[in-house]
Specification:
heterotrimer, A mainly alpha (303), B mainly alpha (333), C alpha/beta (277), B: 333 residues, 2 strands, C: 6-stranded mixed sheet, 21% strand
């Protein structure tokens, strides 16, 4: 019994990574119907920026702000930087292409992804980089039979605080209503006086910032990062957002968590090697029987 | 002599023939002027052209978002690799068999998902491609050799008379296949099947309401596209003499997607240009070393900014059609 | 005034029995019995949301009805797929024009011949003599239909580039290319100017006189309904409200006027009431 609980907690940990990245995909898709292929690379870039702060600035930062302060500094620095990068990418790669339709935007997004990925390689080199160890004290916690690390608790707490905040903004505030209205029907929303550009600005700053924060957490959790890791996480997170119902913000969170838990349970009870196959089969089955995902709305085409 | 519209058609046709003759001449002479290295580059250009043509059927002609096309390519390559190394079946015999295996796989996998629209089809095909790649890595039944793949694949031969084992011969093999494929696909474009595919791309509901069984035609596109990708896999496997899962990653599917869109959806000359871009660009910019992929990514963005419909989109209505009824007494006008 | 054909003179071409279509909890069509007779023009009228287009979508196979049956020339076609229904001989147009925008006018009309031709993959790739003959026949019919609607001159233009009124006619030509026994037109005059509407009426009169075809149409333009229909059926809230009848009787029917004018202010202004009667 405690094995399954531990697997679920491990699943929730990686699931919250997927969920936070998936939010970026889902928010952009909701507003622009664009699959932002560069989003995985936002996540990687955030991870590398955090790495740089922690490696080169750690001594200085820790001396002034303490351990947690240094970590906060890294998170904030990476988050803010990626918000700016997100905006630049939107301006340079996507905005000029929107009027031409959705498919050219796919190519442009892939181009942006190649660009970012290789820019990271040029700056930080093609090899794996080791994240600073023992950043967070390696404390083990025993909860009944369940074994947890302090790092896991920090990751889960931070993820849930971020998701909760976003959920509150999107579901409870007026601006959140504007975002949801834009996702539902962009044309009508703009006729109703919603400033679409503000919504686009929001999703292209917050999405990459969340990705960057996730990048740092992934670096601390797995201790190593590479310039290509964005593809894999991006693919999983995109899958998660479709699973939850693409364009739907609570759906992306739920999809990410479910995907993480399924992956860990699949690894424990089916086969570690086949866990990803298992995940994709679930995804395909969900889409065959419920094409709009778990929380997605059903929209019928008017004939 | 007065210029009649018919002369216009004649001129257009002959200028087109001239272009094709010129292109063929360049392709025939080129390999005798350069080293094996450049012949190999042209070989990979041919492979990407074939892959682009195969995805163009699904994505370009029918408008189905297929981001897992590398899966069909992999099925073709591994069919060739496994049957050749385990049972010694000749590569040329495996050429149609690999096409068939990929086509069958496409039929089985796509049947339950063919009703999905747009991005949902995209994510499902993406998942399908990933499942194929992961399965190859996991070495089911000890067939695929895991992450290392399968080694020691033969070269194509037909007894002692025809042996394809040099760069030059592979070059001619792939471009012969590409040439025949282009001929067949050009004819399909101007047939009720090609039009039916285009009707579905333009408006599926209207296509159905005009008597087109969209489900069957969409499946046909997948099956035919997969078969061609299977052929590409066969030639690729024998050229490289080994196959491994990393050659069939999501990235390959993305490249094929870009080939079709850079050239222009449903445009055969466009596919050639797209494939040239994808396969030649990194070679041309080799002197820039690690910066070349930065330039590559920027070029993709710039292209979509300035030519969102592709570099060489298919032009419809360029050839003026003349009456079939006039002079037969059946004219209503 | 054109001559009137009498309703119920010919055999029944299309018949629906107890046709019911439900969306969620909403009954869009409520046990509708409808009979269309050979060689007539039958107009289905009624306010927005009356369920007229839903009837068309069920008849043409886009929707599957919850209850009831559709018979076409004696054969049960309920639940058949749209492409099968076209080959049975029912062709339709759409309220909001659905052409193939990036294809030429000629290619658009050729679509109508798809169900009347058979060439497969191999005969198309190898250009067999049978395939070539068939292609010529497809092109010939397309030319005939394009000339009928005066669009032969625009044959090589993309459908999205021709005028709105021409697009409406092109869609009708495409439907006619399949040589249907029943032509189903969803608001063919909407968006047309009065002259184009008159041309359309004349065209439909010609077609019905010269060809073995029956026309079922949804129409909001009362001038057109009164001008060309042989029989009028009024729908409201998914049901037939008045006894069906010849246009003059329907026009005088109090319940029809109520359905249009008395209930929904929003809709009432949308109808063009003839000045003289």
């Amino acid at each position: 019994m405690h094995v399954i609980l531990e697997q679920i907690i491990n699943g929730l940990t990686i699931g919250s990574f997927y969920a936070l990245i998936a939010l970026g995909y889902s928010m952009v898709y909701g507003v622009l119907k664009l699959i932002n292929f560069a989003h995985g690379d936002f996540f990687t870039l955030g991870s590398y920026l955090g790495y740089t702060v922690l490696v080169f600035g750690a001594a200085l930062l820790t001396a002034h702000f303490g351990l947690w302060g240094a970590l906060m500094a890294a998170l904030i620095f990476a988050g803010v930087s990626l918000a700016i990068v997100g905006l630049i990418v939107e301006r340079v790669a996507y905005r000029p292409v929107y009027p031409a339709g959705r498919l050219p935007a796919v190519v442009s997004a892939l181009g942006a992804s190649i660009f970012l990925q290789n820019a990271i390689m040029v700056v930080w080199g093609p090899r794996f980089q080791a994240y600073p160890a023992a950043l967070i004290p390696n404390v083990h916690i025993q909860l009944g039979n369940i074994h947890l690390t302090l790092l896991q608790i920090v990751i889960l707490l931070l993820s849930f605080v971020l998701m909760g905040t976003l959920y509150y903004i999107v579901q409870k505030t007026t601006f959140g209503a504007a975002i949801r209205a834009t996702a539902h029907d962009r044309k009508t929303a703009s006729l109703m006086g919603i400033n679409i550009n503000k919504v686009i600005l929001f999703v292209f700053t917050l999405g990459p910032a969340l990705g960057a924060v996730t990048g740092i957490m992934v670096g601390m959790y797995y201790r190593q990062i590479s310039f290509t890791m964005g593809w894999n996480y991006g693919l999983k997170a995109f899958t998660a957002s479709v699973l939850g119902g693409i364009g739907n913000i609570p759906g992306a969170m739920l999809g990410g968590l479910i995907l993480g838990v399924l992956e860990m349970l699949g690894a424990a009870y089916i086969s570690a090697a086949w866990k990803d196959v298992f995940v994709f089969i679930i995804l395909i089955l969900v889409l065959i029987f419920r094409p709009t995902g778990i929380l997605g709305e059903k929209t019928a085409e008017k004939v | 002599m007065e210029r009649t519209p018919l002369n216009g058609i004649g001129r257009l046709a002959s200028s087109r023939q001239l272009h094709i003759a010129l292109a063929t001449a360049v392709f025939l002479i080129y390999p005798f002027l350069v080293s094996d290295y450049f012949i190999d580059i042209a070989f990979y250009f041919g492979i990407y052209t074939l892959l682009g043509l195969s995805l163009n059927i699904v994505l370009g002609e029918v408008g189905l978002f297929d981001l897992g096309h590398a899966g069909f390519y992999a099925i073709g390559a591994y069919t060739t690799a496994i049957l050749n190394t385990k049972f010694g079946i000749p590569i040329l015999v495996l050429l149609p068999l690999s096409a068939l295996a990929a086509a069958l796989f496409a039929y089985v996998v796509c049947s339950p998902i063919i009703h999905l629209q747009g991005d949902y089809l995209l994510i499902v095909t993406l998942g399908m491609g990933e499942i194929v790649r992961l399965a190859l890595i996991n070495n089911p039944f000890d067939l695929t050799g895991g992450p290392n793949g399968v080694f020691g694949i033969d070269f194509p031969s037909l007894g002692p008379w025809l042996v394809i084992d040099s760069s030059l011969e592979y070059y001619f093999l792939i471009w012969l296949i590409v040439g025949l494929t282009i001929l067949g696909l050009t004819r399909l474009q101007d047939s009720r099947i090609g039009r039916a595919w285009n009707y579905i791309r333009e408006d599926e509901t209207a296509a159905n309401a005009n008597g087109i069984d969209s489900r069957s035609y969409k499946l046909l596109a997948f099956v035919l596209g997969a078969a061609l990708a299977g052929v590409a896999g066969n030639v690729y496997a024998s050229k490289l003499m080994c196959v491994s899962p990393e050659s069939f990653s999501f990235w390959e599917s993305c490249l094929m997607f870009c080939i079709v869109l850079i050239g222009g959806m449903g445009s055969i000359p466009g596919v050639i240009i797209g494939a040239a871009f994808i396969s030649l660009f990194p070679e041309i910019f080799r002197p820039f070393a690690m910066y070349r992929m930065l330039i590559f990514g920027s070029a993709m963005m710039l292209m979509m900014m300035f030519r969102p419909g592709g570099v060489w989109p298919r032009k419809r209505g360029a050839v003026k059609y003349e009456s079939l009824l006039e002079g037969t007494g059946r004219s209503d006008a | 005034m054109p001559e009137r054909r009498t309703h119920a003179a010919g055999e029944t071409v299309l018949e629906t029995k107890g046709l019911t279509k439900i969306f969620g909890g909403l009954i869009a069509v409520n046990s509708l019995d409808l009979k269309v007779h050979k060689g007539e023009i039958l107009s289905l009228i009624g306010p927005n949301g009356a369920g007229k287009t839903t009837v068309f979508n069920v008849v043409s196979g886009i929707y599957r009805p919850e209850f009831g049956e559709v018979f076409f020339r004696g054969e049960r076609i309920t639940g058949k797929k749209p492409h099968q229904i076209v080959s049975h001989g029912i062709a339709r147009t759409f309220q909001n024009i659905r052409l193939f925008p990036d294809m030429t006018c000629r290619e658009n009309v050729m679509a109508g011949r798809h169900c009347r031709s058979t060439s497969g993959l191999f005969s198309s790739i190898f250009r067999t003599p049978g395939q070539r003959t068939e292609e010529d026949m497809i092109k010939g019919t397309a030319e005939k239909r394009l000339r009928q609607v005066n669009l032969w001159k625009s044959r090589d233009d993309l459908a999205k580039n021709i005028a709105y009124g021409s697009q409406r006619m092109l869609e009708i030509a495409r439907a006619l290319a399949s040589d249907p026994k029943l032509l189903v037109l969803d608001e063919p005059s909407s968006g047309l100017n009065p002259r184009e509407t008159r041309d359309l009426m004349a065209f439909l009169q010609d077609i019905i006189r010269e060809e073995d075809v029956t026309i079922l149409l949804i129409e909001h333009d009362m001038n057109m309904v009164m001008g060309i229909s042989d029989w009028v059926v009024v729908m409201d809230g998914g049901r037939k409200i008045a006894e069906e009848g010849i246009p003059d009787d329907i026009y005088a029917d109090q319940r029809v006027i109520e359905a249009y004018l008395g209930k929904d202010d929003e809709d009432s202004t949308a109808y063009d009431v003839p000045a003289e009667h």
